[in-house]
Amino acid sequence: MDKEFAKTYLQLISLDEKVNDFNTIQSYSSIDSLGPSLPQFKFALPIIEDAESDVKKVTVTLKSIKPPKFSVSLDFPDSDTIYKVKTTLIEKEGLAVEAADIKFLVKGKVVQDAAVLSELDNLSFMCMIAKTKMDSPAPETPKETEKHKIDYVSPEAWDKILEVLIKDGNSDNAANDILLRFKSSI
């Protein structure tokens, strides 16, 4: 192992500053340094020649059993998961659903999203698409919405709110202005 790399690494892990104390309010352009940087660690990476030729392609056949009706065959690398097949189906067919709303069935059993195509015997799936929120009727909304009225806010609470506004980078005048608008809204 490179001595310079190890020395700098040990220096970095022994810094006393806590990671959680990072001040996000400070302008990034005013930061002089992010601390010591690790030197380039020199080692040879393995060379993979023509990785594309080793990828085995499989054809997946998908047929819906209820609307929207479709029947499609798509090619995928055998290392892809069912989830990847679902997202590709959504793109290709222009379906307005999430991947979780689609179920792939083989012999009446649901195939899990994490299943890898190379592990499956049958690559012909029946698809069932759950009703989307747009298809289902909207729930009835109550005619009169309840509003919670705040009766009293202590001066200490207002001071804490002002303190937070100032801490967020607002000037004293701007923080007071925001606080006054907030007070008048409740």
Question: What is the compact description of this entry?
Answer:
It is built from 5 helices and 5 strands.
Give a count of the beta strands, DSSP E runs of length 2 or more: 5
Q: Termini separation (Å)?
A: 64 Å
- What is the ordering of alpha helices and beta strands? HHEEHEEEHH
Tell me the strand percentage band: 15-25%
Contiguous runs where pLDDT drops below 50 for at least 5 residues: none
Structural class: alpha+beta
Corresponding CATH architecture of the domain at 54-129: Roll
Helix content: 25-40%
**CATH homologous superfamily annotation of the domain at 54-129:** Phosphatidylinositol 3-kinase Catalytic Subunit, Chain A, domain 1
Strand order of the largest sheet: 2-1-5-3-4
* CATH topology type of the domain at 54-129: Ubiquitin-like (UB roll)
The chain-level mean pLDDT equals 78
- The coarse silhouette is flat
Reading off the top of the CATH hierarchy, the class of the domain at 54-129 is best stated as Alpha Beta
How can the largest sheet be summarized?
5 strands, mixed
- Rounded to an integer, what's the Rg over CA atoms? 29 Å
- Report the total helices: 5
Keywords summarizing the entry:
186 residues, alpha+beta, Ubiquitin-like (UB roll), 5 helices, 5 strands, flat, Ubiquitin-like protein Mdy2p
Task: Explain what you see.
The protein has 186 residues and is an alpha+beta fold. Among the domains are: 54-129, Ubiquitin-like (UB roll) (Roll), CATH 3.10.20; 155-185. It has five helices and five strands. The chain has helices at 3-13, 51-54, 82-93, 155-167, 172-185; strands spanning 57-64, 71-77, 102-106, 109-111, 124-129. It has a five-stranded mixed β-sheet, with helices on one face. Strand 1 and strand 2 form a beta hairpin. This is Ubiquitin-like protein Mdy2p. It comes from [Candida] jaroonii.
